[in-house]
What we know:
single chain, Multidrug efflux transporter AcrB transmembrane fold, Gyrase A, domain 2, 4 domains, six-stranded antiparallel sheet, four-stranded antiparallel sheet, 16 helices, 47% helix
Amino acid sequence: MAKTNSPVRRARRALIGLAALFAVLIGILSIGVGFFGAQWTPKLALDLEGGTQIRLAPVVQGDDSVSSEQVDQAVAIIRDRIDAAGVSEAEITTEGGNNIVVSIPGQPDEETLARIEASAKLDFRPVLLADVPSTASVDDPAATPTPEPTEAAPAPEPTDPSDLAQVTPALQTQFDSFQCADIDETVVPPTDEPLITCSDDGTAKYLLGPVEVTGENLSDATAGVVTTQTGASTGTWAVNLEFDGTGTEQFADVTSRLTGLESPRNQFAVVLDNRVIVAPSSNAVITDGRAQITGTFNQDSAETLADQLKYGALPISFSVQSSDTISATLGSEQLLGGLIAGGIGLLLVVLYSFIQYRTLGLVTVASLVVAGALTYLVIAILGWRIDFRLSLAGVAGLIVAIGVTADSFIVYFERIKDELRDGRGLDGAVEAGWKRAFRTILASDAINFLAAGVLTVLAVGNVRGFAVTLGITTIIDLIVVALFTHPMLQLLARTKFFGEGHRFSGLDPKALGAVYRGRARFREPVTVGPRSQASRGEAARRQTIAERKAGAAAGGTSTAVLEQPDEGVVPETTRTGTTGGKKKGTR
Length: 587
């Protein structure tokens, strides 16, 4: 009895696990909606919801021109900035060969807009003068003492970018009267002349020397915790810089000159959009192109600065030409058309299931409903956590998933039929068919998931949305078929309607041409008369294992059996004869 009931217990545990999974997903989404601004519905992409469109125009001087390579590089960097902000389904295109158009779904936050609009070149300049108000933190890397006015006395000829001879009386007067609100971020300053600017928060004013290193020579910038020489963590956050070959040489020259100078001339400023985002002092000569910026950082500020450094190195400067709210590029009609197409596909799958599998098709429909509910919850949660947005391409991925999921059920049902044709009872056919079917389903879904993974990594825009939905639904397909479809069949196999092979159950033995006749009832074995050995062998080969067993038990029949052995098994020939219902002999 325990053995008979074990599949039932396994089925109930699987269904309880599925219910627990639903409870967890609903709980997570409920917490997000209640406390963190999430929403019950999935977020929609630009083509279905609309959003914000920002047009960036290159800033050039005189007769300078912008090359297509520079624009392409700028597009790639801006795309990296947006991806780093967690925005999905954004569209970044070029317009007229020079302009860059950035379209973001929904209403982006100020941080995302700042990442996009911060499009100027990233430069490293030495600090000549610094004016820090008394309200600035003395621990801030940008907060440095104000030099005495006598230090600004100009020399006839500057000898290097840090030489105070560059500070003429007129420049000193301009610096003293300069207000941070006067910064024009659309103007590209000369790279070989001093620059008066402020920190990005407006708490410090700087007079900077000419550009010595450009952002194009910065290979990477990452945030991390400072460690000691023994590898122990200090708990202090820092930003790690890595320069390319040219940048390594240039940065070595800069730090060689700045190290040992008095403050603030021992500092170098990192300038983005004509504002200083950080101005650390040089404490050592860096010759290997690997530098570390420390200060009053926490994890968030260190990661933000690293992103600014890493994604700020545009080859050219851009100004924001326009920022507009746009409507959905496809609109409700196209979305309705996509939903109708999906509905038609779903209806065809349902009709096929009922025609082919009769009442068993209800399991297919119920499984599709469960898969749809799981997919809905997962996409809604991803919209909250990673700003995943459902585009029309993503909807196409969901429609494709209907066929993928239905294919898994068909494979499983057909394996059950095969087992029934071989003479198994329904209980055994469900278990044996599951073992055979799951391997096939797993291999098929693995290929789909691999394709989705490749597209997610290599594709951009809407194609990536299609890949994400395909990957999500592939995983959900495995969950549903293992935690719902198989357990339901385990339970249904023990009902009278399915167990006795009702003609509307989808497991009718007459329709299947199977040996199985309901609960342990089989077709009568084929009687082989006095024919040739060849004809007897041919008749025997048409019998199933169950027929041969039933024939041996029935008595009064002489059956010649020639079994085709499994691979690697030595074939045997057996003759069983009976006389008067008693066993005569076996050889």
